[in-house]
Design a protein that fits this description.
The chain is α+β, with helices and mostly antiparallel strands. It has helices spanning 3-14, 31-42, 56-66, 84-93, 95-103, and strands spanning 17-21, 48-51, 73-76, 79-82.
């Protein structure tokens, strides 16, 4: 197992909502990352983001880790959820808000 995969795992397991994205929630660097952040915020998520543009190793290895080729990538409670389109669909159906509320419940 590579050190990069260990870092990805630590991010995913260390936060209830993790978005691997291009840029940051404040300054998204692509439309898909921007849209994913927008619906996550509307769903009430406290987003922990990882800027893949600043971390070429994560950018290279995350698609192998998640078996998903593009960014952004959303993980909730350690589970890969999907990219922008899936995140938006889940939000529109109300499912994302429920998942976020569940994930961020105080222990």
């Amino acid at each position: 197992m590579s050190a990069v995969i260990d870092r990805i795992k630590a991010e995913v397991e260390g936060h209830s909502v993790v978005l691997f994205m291009k840029g940051t929630p404040q300054f998204p660097m692509c439309g898909f990352s921007s849209k994913a952040c927008e619906v996550l915020k509307q769903a009430g998520a406290q987003i922990h983001s990882v800027n893949v543009l600043q971390d070429p190793e994560i950018r290279a290895d995350l698609p192998r880790f998640s078996d998903w080729p593009t960014f952004p990538q959303l993980f909730i409670n350690g589970e890969f959820i999907g990219g922008c389109d899936i995140t938006v669909e889940l939000f529109q159906s109300g499912e994302l808000t429920r998942m976020i509320a569940e994930a961020q419940k105080p222990a």
